Here is the input.
Amino acid sequence: MIIFNLSNSIMPQIRFPQTKSQIPILSCVVISFWLFSCTPNSPKSLPLAELKRSKESIVVSAHPLASEAGKLMLEKGGNAVDAAVAMAFGISVVEPFSAGIGGGGFLLLGTPPENSETQQYKIRALDFRERAPKAATRNMYLNEKGEVEKKASLDGHLAVGVPGTVAGLYNIHKSLGKLPWKELLKPAIRYARDGFELSDNFVSKLERRLEVINKNPAARDIFTKNGQAYQPGDLLIQTDKAQTLETIAENPQSFYTGKIAQAIATDMAKAGGLITLEDLRNYTPIWREPICGKFRQAKVCAMSPPSSGGVHLLQILNIVGETNLQEWGRENPDTIHLLTEAMRVAYADRSLHLGDPDFVEVPVKELTSLSYAQRRRQEINLTKVRRSTEVQPVSPEVLRSNILESPDTTHLTVVDKERNVISMTYTVNGSFGAGVVVAGTGILLNNEMDDFAAAPEAQNLYGLVGDEANAIAPRKTPLSSMTPTIVTENGRLIMATGSPGGSTIITTVVQVILNVLEYKMNAAEAVSAPRFHHQWLPDKLMLETGGFGEATVNELKQRGHNVVMRRGWGNANVVVLHDSGMLEAAADPRGEGEAMGNGQ
Ligand code: DON
Here is the structure.
């Protein structure tokens, strides 16, 4: 586990000018902690999440039926693992467009120490991400002219990575689950067999992927009425998926070596996909060390490579350092500017250095070191934007010479009464994944292969670019941005969070963490607060429409930011644990999720 400190002494160089908008913000600090709402130029048009509280245990996910499945497991005497597994299978049925058994992901598991005065939370990370099939090749998405065939990594069988969800969920259950495995699948089987009502959200996502879905007969059968999208309020019944889940309930290994594996391999062979029985048989989830660092008094742990989430979450927090953002104010252009510049640096480094650590050496310690953050921070000018072309990834040589200190996706979070915690993000990548359902099984397959860099400079679905480190290779894992996170302090749990949103995941998680730790927001405020995002390339500062006042937006433009207003993104959720022992949770108001507490 890599731990480093944010020390005051390393961040002294920058002068922070007082802008006009800062003055009213500072006076506001005295009156209220809820800075962005009291900032005079700040609009209040964004909805606020519903706050749920419980002393006992709490669940939160992107869909009420998935949350209900988790709550039920806790009521039956299950723990956080049981609840998370039931919720994940639930999501697979009620939100198949975002994540499911045809995809993969990452989770962090936190277990409390016997003595929180003297010991730390134990935090482990499970990588159950999709892997490239053995027959994958570096240039598999290039045409004869050497150009990237964009659709090939997004739509259809060739876009699919070997799914890891079932193996991951079974693995975590074996390590800590209390209830019988079969019990955990019951709610999902019920939702698939009896059906559930489709929401506006589901249908609008379906309509956007209809053309691709209609090309695959098995997907067309499930998600359309003779090629027409189902409508909000319609009941979606998934009989094949119910049967598949029954099979998994009896024997999870059937997905990798049994009749489900056979169905997947047959479907692949017929349609020009690469996944074989051997690929499925060889799939194994991997326990990894999470990446942990200190921010203020808190210890922030998040997912390590092959996700870039943890590295860049900590890199951005390191660049913030001891800056008193609370005093500056959340909507102060200085705050947004500093964080934007930190994001720009992090995503530049991501493009060169991040990839599957089993294939390339990822300089995790260096990128998350304080001395490197100091160096990067000194380059930031608070009065003037740098264009992304002026900000390059650090070269491996410079990084090595750096002196080190000692050393469409879904997220769900559960904390049980023993204070075990699961923070899990998993996905089929783009909405409805590859748009392919394995005939006869109801399994919607991912298009995770698009997260590889198909060629240097080629953008993926989220506009991210990569290089050698994230080039395609047989059995390699594509680089992710998923950032399931757990924050503790002196052996006590403080919060757990995560979000979908492709490239925006990391910056969403940064902001939710700052909202709780720095701005002292409650769980509902923290997931509701307006967001901004920068990812180096394209060189754009995305601001959430309706979230920032005119004065702030104008000031940022004045400094040279290429401001783009965007409708809200991400679908975060968070659980916060207070000193009083009270748990509180909230689901992002931008989505349709729900938090549910047990007991009082
Ligand atoms: O692993 C990643 O970073 C992406 N495949 C996540 C995709 C995602 O968040 C889609 N959600 N909106």
User: Anything to note?
Assistant: Residues 408-409, 427, 429, 448, 451, 480-482, 500-502, 505 surround 6-diazenyl-5-OXO-L-norleucine (CB under 6 Å). Residues 93 and 192 are 6 Å apart (CA to CA). The first strand starts at residue 52 and ends at 54. Residues 1-43, 403-407 have pLDDT under 50 and may be disordered.
